Amino acid sequence: MVLSVSEQTFTQEVLESAIPVLVNFEAPWCGLCRIIQPLLLQFRTQYNGQIKLVRVNADENFKLSNAYKLKSLPTLLLIENGIVRYRLESFRAREDLLLALEVIKDSCAHKSQAYVGNKMPDLEYRSA
């Protein structure tokens, strides 16, 4: 089961997390959100301990939805040390998600290299 995070627990569970957090903004009415859930669970299992996976109901957490300027659901954010390092939105197919998860996995696996000079590489990915 994926941890559900709300506006009340977001700071503690996401922004103050010791490891990177993949935040899945979703809604109960979102069909694509339900379709990608098994892929996210598989991803979490493979990288348990390296990346934390949480979900946020965008409808019930309007302040977070506004703060992160959600345009579509699902939207995935990789947040590390309180900073959005990666954003995936407007993807249309399973392959888009798998590609994005691979980039996220690689960025976390090479974290020590990525922090040379305290600068993370730009991992922004937006599918058209």
TrEMBL record:
Q: Where is the Thioredoxin domain?
A: 1-106
Give the GO molecular function terms. protein-disulfide reductase activity
The cross-references to Pfam families, in alphabetical order and at most eight, read:
Thioredoxin
Q: Which UniProt keywords apply?
A: Redox-active center
| Gene Ontology CC annotation, any one | cytosol
PROSITE patterns this protein is in? THIOREDOXIN_2
InterPro entries xref list: Thioredoxin-like_sf (IPR036249), Thioredoxin_domain (IPR013766)
* Any single GO BP term: cell redox homeostasis
Superkingdom of the organism of origin? Bacteria
Q: Which family does it belong to?
A: Belongs to the thioredoxin family.
Q: What is this protein called?
A: Thioredoxin
Organism whose genome encodes this protein? Mastigocoleus testarum BC008
- What lineage is on file? Bacteria, Bacillati, Cyanobacteriota, Cyanophyceae, Nostocales
